[in-house]
Design a protein that fits this description.
- The structure is a single chain.
- This protein has a five-stranded parallel beta sheet with strand order 2-1-3-4-5, sandwiched between helices.
- It is globular and about 30 Å long.
- It is 42% helix and 22% strand.
- The chain is built from five helices and five strands.
- The longest helix has 13 residues.
Length: 118
């Protein structure tokens, strides 16, 4: 499974990369630090999954998530947010799944696998 990380924090991207790359079958194909880079990077890297930080600079989830689904219909978009109360807004914007940054790393992995298997 090919994963693109979209988070402005180098620490978060590094932690995600470290955790996910230990899982067989998961490859990190790129990283972006602002919303304006996502569409171009998805076109270049061809990921199966994009992990998008809800606090990504320039991100308007109600715009970028539908654009991603429109241009890349098979792409899974998983919202990754610091605030668990953002779940409903992220899902309403069209995210396929939601993970709180406060959740255990195993929860992120389970969410990715579940979304990818559907």
């Amino acid at each position: 499974m090919r994963v693109l990380l979209a988070d402005s924090s180098q620490e978060v991207r590094s932690a995600l990369r470290l955790h996910l790359e230990q899982e067989p079958g998961i490859v990190i194909v790129g990283e972006v630090t602002e919303a304006g880079e996502i569409l171009a990077q998805v076109a270049i890297a061809c990921p199966d999954v994009v992990l998008i930080d809800c606090g990504l600079p320039g991100l308007k989830a109600e715009e970028i998530v539908p654009a991603l689904h429109s241009q890349f219909p098979h792409l899974l978009v998983i919202a990754l947010c610091r605030r668990p109360e953002m779940r409903q807004a992220a899902l309403a914007a069209g995210a396929d799944a939601f993970v709180s940054k406060g959740d255990l790393p195993e929860s992120l992995l389970a969410t990715i696998k579940k979304a990818h298997s559907n």
